[in-house]
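Bit of a strange request maybe. I'm writing a small parser for structure token strings and I need a real example to test against, not something I typed by hand. Could someone generate the tokens for this chain?
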Amino acid sequence: MAGIFSTDHPVWNFLGKLTDMVLLTGLWILCSIPLVTIGAATAALYDVSFQMAENQEGYIVRSFFKSFRKNWKRATAVWLITAGLGILLASDVYVYSRMESLGVVLLTASVIAAVIYAMMLLYLFPLIVKSDLDLKSAAAAAFVLALKNPGWTIFMLVAAAGILAAGIFVLAPLLAVGAGLTAYLHCKILRMILEDEKREAR
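Reply from user aminoacidic:
Good idea to test on real output. This should exercise your parser:
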């Protein structure tokens, strides 16, 4: 009976992680409100989530804002470029979906490009916080990793979409942990992928 009150008990570990995810989600939402800061907030989200995935998390708030400041310039540049590209792709899909004949071909190409874009985004911000790669190199590495690990990439996309959809249509309280839970799951998978890349590079 005494074991259940131990701080190492799985129940308390789970509740601790859950609390951290709620806090992390709140911080990400708060710091994303100005919109231009979404990149830095997302970088901080993944940075702290990697620490959680490695069981090295300390003070969530302090770690989040430390990472936010550290990655501000690079992450903001990545966000502005990827946001612009995302808007362009969304516009193409909308326009081509309303066209006939040639529009079908262009729509198909735009949808494929949008899917590849979404796949790359899964790796881009984590690479920003886990490496010193410049934007061009990070984008190239994200592209390679996305296509090299199609199973995990699709799983991460489905998991992110599933958590968001479940929070909106099924269980609203899930949105309180949505960003933190998604990033935590992604980081668990990304750790394995990045470790495999290091082993192959040796």
